[in-house]
Design goal:
Helices cover 39% and strands 33% of the residues. It folds into 3 domains: 3-85, no CATH class; 114-245, Jelly Rolls, CATH 2.60.120; 255-325, Phage tail protein beta-alpha-beta fold. Strands 1, 2, 3, 4, 5, 6, 7, 8, 9, 10, 11, 12 and 13 form a 13-stranded mixed sheet that branches. Strands 15-18-17 form a 3-stranded mixed sheet. It is an alpha+beta fold.
């Protein structure tokens, strides 16, 4: 074994030991918010810490189930013994399971599962992956997915997607978007990749957001439910949002857009993501007016009618553009 391999193995053992220490501490009755904050800080230091923690957590859970099985009642133990007296049947069952699983593994692991998914302006698409995960693509989005024997990766090349990732401690799901990487074990979150900013919002579970090249550890962060991270050039800003706001941001999954005290110019820009015809707010006074309400994402008429009726604005059709002004 090379020196590099030995060093890597030692580093892995050290991480597992540290993760086990954290798990043991969490089971104590005196665990408090300060302890949780310290754990969160350790998990946020690197994706390796996060992965090690959940792998040890999963191993402990399996061990607990084995202990439970060993504590069977005498009648149950006798039943197990009787089953063991029928080796021929057991052998046949094992062979059947082996054949079925073997065929499934050959199909799943032997075939190539790298795929590209794209949506046009105004369209949405739901992708069901082989590992049980589900991804919903929003308007004008492109996603590349690669599921293999020892990896689960996706690359959001543009647009927005909502992820429901199946839990797999041994194989974290890694999403790259722009210059950033999101590492998850099983959770619900959405990612929006705009030209000058990346937004990651967590609904359930935990994810680790960091630089794709892993060089800027100071710019990495651990997200917990309700966190919204906005990454720009050289910085990651983290805020907390109530569930209502996150639900509004995901209204596109139902074909809707929801605005709450949103400047008219920003609301129009969001509507334009879903339509070839573009809404232009022509003057600054109109742009600052705030919009409230829900609108079908592809119904420009409903949006402009609200602008006309609520604010008394002028709406003009100019070819492929709809101009709103005072």
């Amino acid at each position: 074994m090379s020196e590099a391999s030995v060093s890597e193995a030692e580093g892995t053992r050290e991480l597992k030991t540290r993760a086990a220490e954290w798990l043991e501490r969490r089971d104590r009755t005196d665990w408090n918010e300060a302890d949780q904050a310290a754990l969160d800080m350790w998990l946020a230091q690197s994706s390796a810490n996060l992965i090690a923690y959940w792998r040890v957590h999963d191993a402990w859970r399996r061990a607990e189930r084995l202990v439970a099985l060993r504590s069977l009642e005498p009648e149950q133990a006798a039943h197990v013994a009787r089953v063991r007296l029928r080796p021929a049947l057991v052998g046949v069952a094992a062979l059947i399971v082996f054949v079925i699983l073997g065929a499934g593994a050959t199909f799943f692991l032997g075939a190539s599962h790298e795929h590209m998914y794209s949506t046009k302006v105004g369209d949405r698409e739901t992708v069901a992956l082989f590992d049980g995960s589900r991804i919903e693509l929003n308007t004008n989005s492109t996603l590349r997915v690669d599921i293999g024997q020892d990896h689960r990766t996706a690359s959001l090349e543009k647009g927005e997607a909502y992820f429901e990732i199946a839990h797999d401690t041994k194989h974290p799901f890694v999403v790259t978007a722009g210059d950033h990487r999101i590492t998850v074990l099983g959770t619900k979150f959405f990612v929006r990749d705009d030209p000058d900013r990346l937004e990651v919002a967590l609904i359930e579970g935990r994810v680790w957001l960091g630089e794709a090249n892993d060089k800027a550890r100071a710019q990495s962060t651990l997200l917990t439910p309700g966190d919204v991270a906005v990454a720009t050039a050289g910085a990651i800003a983290l805020t907390r949002q109530p569930q209502r706001n996150l639900s509004n941001d995901l209204a596109w999954r139902r074909g809707m857009l929801t605005f709450f005290h949103t400047p008219l110019a920003e609301a129009a820009a969001e509507l334009n993501r879903y339509n070839e015809r573009q809404v232009i707010v022509a003057d600054a006074d109109a742009a600052r007016l705030t919009m409230n309400g829900s609108f079908p994402a592809t119904d420009i008429a409903a949006f402009t009618e609200a602008a006309r009726e609520v604010f008394g604005l002028r709406v003009e059709e100019r070819g492929e553009k709809v101009v709103i002004s005072r």
